[in-house]
Design the sequence.
């Protein structure tokens, strides 16, 4: 699933993999290839997962900029 993140306006890919009662989510920035992975309960609303994915990815990218 490709989406646009409001803060950075970069294209972001989200990969969902259900593992039992959990959802493994990988968020990847299309431009830089930066990736974050996190686990949520399987019944977490998609909108909440997407918001968390954008926040985690943006934070990781900021950390990489700072060194």
Sequence:
């Amino acid at each position: 699933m490709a989406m646009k993140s409001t803060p950075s306006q970069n294209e972001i890919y989200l990969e969902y993999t259900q593992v039992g009662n959990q959802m493994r989510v990988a968020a990847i920035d299309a431009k830089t290839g930066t990736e974050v992975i996190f686990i949520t309960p399987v019944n977490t609303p998609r909108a909440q997962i997407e918001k968390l994915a954008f926040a985690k990815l943006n934070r990781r990218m900021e950390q990489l900029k700072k060194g």
